[in-house]
Amino acid sequence: MGNTFSNKSDQLNKDIPIPLYFQLKEKIKEKIVNGSLEPGDLIPSERELSKKYNISRPTIRQALKGLVNEGLLYREKGRGTFVSNPKIKYGFIQKFTTFYDDMKEKGYETETKVIKQEIQYASGSLAKKLEISENDKIIFIHRIRYIKGDPIVSVINNIPYRLCTALIDENLENKSLYRTLADNYNIKPHKAEITLEPIVANEYDTELLNIDENQPMFLMKNLTYSTDDVAIDYFESHFRGDKGKVKVELHNNID
């Protein structure tokens, strides 16, 4: 980090109507973007920043909290506040691939923990989505995906049991579920209906993903169809907002 915060000209402007906490937040953000602050760098203490910028510690605290909420900084109790690693691009949302395959393609170290894998019975709303009868058997799979040891996403899949009865006994740790369906059961995902919405972490999310309650998250709902237009899976995923971001590319198809 060196002398990143020692520049005397790096001061806040108290004569403009922009809140001081926001000015400080943007200054620190710019240092992260331009590489002056790198992942793992320790941010000066509230006392040091207060002295450097001649502003109150509550103002410092507000600025740092905003950067933590955006995922640019993280706190370690008893150690301080540090610069986070760059956010993961959740690219699989904009192309038909799986989280596992997308992260592997990007070179991330991934790990999967299966929380629950069991036969359940479809509720009315789920049966309607999967085009099966209410109380038909489904294979319920709840997994946590990790990247570099951090829990990133909690995903629950619901698959019609009749399509792949032996899937209930498959070991699905550290592998792609959809690749398993294609390779072992000749069920090939072809298209999906996806909705993505912002949510905040509930108590269960905090327990599973090691985050604070009410922290921003993404909720993805996905209904997947096979090549013969059969509904093969309905899943919901809770993604950490502090660790990743969604990037979508649009192309003009109008001549």
Quick summary:
With 255 residues, this protein is α+β, with helices and mostly antiparallel strands.
Mass-distribution shape? elongated
Side by side, the strands of the main sheet go 5-6-7-10-9-8
**What is the third-level CATH name, the topology of the largest domain?**
Chorismate lyase
- End-to-end CA span: 50 Å
Q: Please write the string of helix (H) and strand (E) elements.
A: HEHHEEEHEHEEHEHEEE
Mean pLDDT, nearest integer? 85
Estimated helix fraction = 25-40%
Please give the largest β-sheet.
6 strands, antiparallel
Number of helices: 7
Please give the CATH architecture of the largest domain: 3-Layer(aba) Sandwich
Provide the structure class: alpha+beta
Extract low-pLDDT stretches: none
Using the coordinates above, name the CATH class of the largest domain.
Alpha Beta
